[in-house]
Task: structure prediction
Amino acid sequence: VRLLVAIHDVTPAHDAAVRELWMLCAKHGVRPALFVVPNWHGMWPLTPDSTFVRWLRDRADGGAEIILHGYRHDEVGLHRRWSDQLRALGRTAGEGEFLTLQLDDARSRIMRGLELLEAVGLHPIGFVPPAWLTHPSATNVAAELGFAVSEDVSAIQLYEQHVRVASPVVRWSARGRWRPYLSSVVAATQNVIHHSALFVRLALHPQDLAHRTTSSSMNRTLAGWTAHRIQCTYSELAEASL
Ligand SMILES: [Zn+2]
Result:
């Protein structure tokens, strides 16, 4: 049984919270994957010599995996059809950047993101769309672009092996007044339900630190899972014969 931990929404816009999550993981002996957004909301492009990017490169040099996580992580300028609305139900408030993007648009946006990451010296091994939402026509776009890994809400996709690894994900939400409490209860329940799953993912969002209920639930969850599971990375999975 293995544990995969990731910090989502890694951007200078969340600089302090991202570092705090990193420290939280370190406290539990975990080196999380970093899901980097190249230009958060179109206002936070990564630049080569910013302190944040230098910090990211140091983490990557130390073995942290970089995953491309959208380009700007919002839906500005995009239009949801009713079928998109349905797929996004309860999942995100306007952050499903790849929800409506069909193959060509998805491909060019990923390529733009990849270019920006490469330009600042970061080399992602995978692509994961914001809120794990992809338009059905673009499901395999990450494979086509040569990424080794992707994932959705229920599984990790290993393209070279052509394998889909079932893997539940525990996550939180600190949005609004009641979500922090509800999501902490849900997380506690999932910790029990997924006890015997072969691969469990923990998705930590910087925004979750905004509420004490969610941040202490994350801390408890990390303590609980790391006590009886070995951490595993996406590249280890991609190289394993499953
Ligand atoms: Zn995200």
